[in-house]
């Protein structure tokens, strides 16, 4: 089926567009009352992810409210470790946790690489259902966590502030961590390629915690494995390029190295000026970002001013996908997200004249 709106895919490949495309990290979520209602029907978050019809419903909810240029699969990065048998659960207010964290070399050796159409078949079913229901309106983004980011949750047993367990493993038993990261990279390649075959038209890798490493260790423990994934991905499917975006939160120092992996686009958080990012790597890759998600608490005029500033920073031409620099906060007024999306489309026209 012909894509009616392919701005997002075109911008990732630096092809001309009429306006700058926009979507929001975590656009389906608790800031929307209709999401909370559907989650209530499902019971809990993982049951929602495992029900293709309901996962499809919450994927589409933000698209009904806002003129977003892409949908993102409703799922989580922790599906892979869950499918490896770690026992993912969510404790209210405390984020994700694992019943059986990875804490020894034998535990790493025992981890299976999940079959994406078996243990993770529910994700592929969600992808197929969403593609069917999108009816070619906008492209669907598939995603995964980076090996390093997944490993932080698997070794720490959940979210962390200081990352002492994973860093102890990194520096005291580096070979064991490399074995884990290598296994995760293989699992992510299989998982993302299965998402692409099921219908994801672009994929994004979330490296939420790469920024807690030193520059040298970032390359060694995070970037190297993302590069391995980029090299293993299906880059063309159904007659169309499948762009890949890498996002390392707090990775602004390392843009040149990230761009050199062969990815199509680099996601930016808000701690870097997009004009600087463009000057550094804009000839190599497209850029995605990068408004501070907390700006959505501001009055409409302030949100619009910030959007205008970021658009001016990127300047003329294609190669920019507008986004927040990280996930939308759960207590943001939904109408402010609408102000943001509309401002991107309205104010970006001037940068795409030809
Ligand atoms: O963007 C989207 O709309 C797609 C869905 C999506 C979710 N998680 C849904 C979700 C995506 C892309 C993710 C990725 C994800 N998950 C990341 C990487 C991006 C980032 O935010 O840095 C990370 C680190 C996770 C791990 C994770 N899962 C966390 C930290 C949490 C939040 C826990 C909490 O209580 O807030 C989750 C749960 C989660 N994933 C929710 C959603 C909508 C909230 C679950 C709920 O209570 O309904």
Automatic annotation (TrEMBL):
<feature type="domain" description="Uroporphyrinogen decarboxylase (URO-D)">
    <location>
        <begin position="21"/>
        <end position="30"/>
    </location>
</feature>
<feature type="binding site">
    <location>
        <position position="153"/>
    </location>
    <ligand>
        <name>substrate</name>
    </ligand>
</feature>
<feature type="binding site">
    <location>
        <position position="326"/>
    </location>
    <ligand>
        <name>substrate</name>
    </ligand>
</feature>
<dbReference type="GO" id="GO:0004853">
    <property type="term" value="F:uroporphyrinogen decarboxylase activity"/>
</dbReference>
<keyword id="KW-0963">Cytoplasm</keyword>
<comment type="function">
    <text>Catalyzes the decarboxylation of four acetate groups of uroporphyrinogen-III to yield coproporphyrinogen-III.</text>
</comment>
<feature type="binding site">
    <location>
        <begin position="26"/>
        <end position="30"/>
    </location>
    <ligand>
        <name>substrate</name>
    </ligand>
</feature>
<feature type="binding site">
    <location>
        <position position="76"/>
    </location>
    <ligand>
        <name>substrate</name>
    </ligand>
</feature>
<protein>
    <recommendedName>
        <fullName>Uroporphyrinogen decarboxylase</fullName>
        <ecNumber>4.1.1.37</ecNumber>
    </recommendedName>
</protein>
<feature type="site" description="Transition state stabilizer">
    <location>
        <position position="76"/>
    </location>
</feature>
<dbReference type="InterPro" id="IPR000257">
    <property type="entry name" value="Uroporphyrinogen_deCOase"/>
</dbReference>
<feature type="binding site">
    <location>
        <position position="208"/>
    </location>
    <ligand>
        <name>substrate</name>
    </ligand>
</feature>
<dbReference type="Pfam" id="PF01208">
    <property type="entry name" value="URO-D"/>
</dbReference>
<dbReference type="GO" id="GO:0019353">
    <property type="term" value="P:protoporphyrinogen IX biosynthetic process from glutamate"/>
</dbReference>
<keyword id="KW-0210">Decarboxylase</keyword>
<comment type="pathway">
    <text>Porphyrin-containing compound metabolism; protoporphyrin-IX biosynthesis; coproporphyrinogen-III from 5-aminolevulinate: step 4/4.</text>
</comment>
<dbReference type="InterPro" id="IPR038071">
    <property type="entry name" value="UROD/MetE-like_sf"/>
</dbReference>
<feature type="domain" description="Uroporphyrinogen decarboxylase (URO-D)">
    <location>
        <begin position="141"/>
        <end position="157"/>
    </location>
</feature>
<comment type="subunit">
    <text>Homodimer.</text>
</comment>
<dbReference type="GO" id="GO:0005829">
    <property type="term" value="C:cytosol"/>
</dbReference>
<keyword id="KW-0627">Porphyrin biosynthesis</keyword>
<dbReference type="InterPro" id="IPR006361">
    <property type="entry name" value="Uroporphyrinogen_deCO2ase_HemE"/>
</dbReference>
<keyword id="KW-0456">Lyase</keyword>
<comment type="similarity">
    <text>Belongs to the uroporphyrinogen decarboxylase family.</text>
</comment>
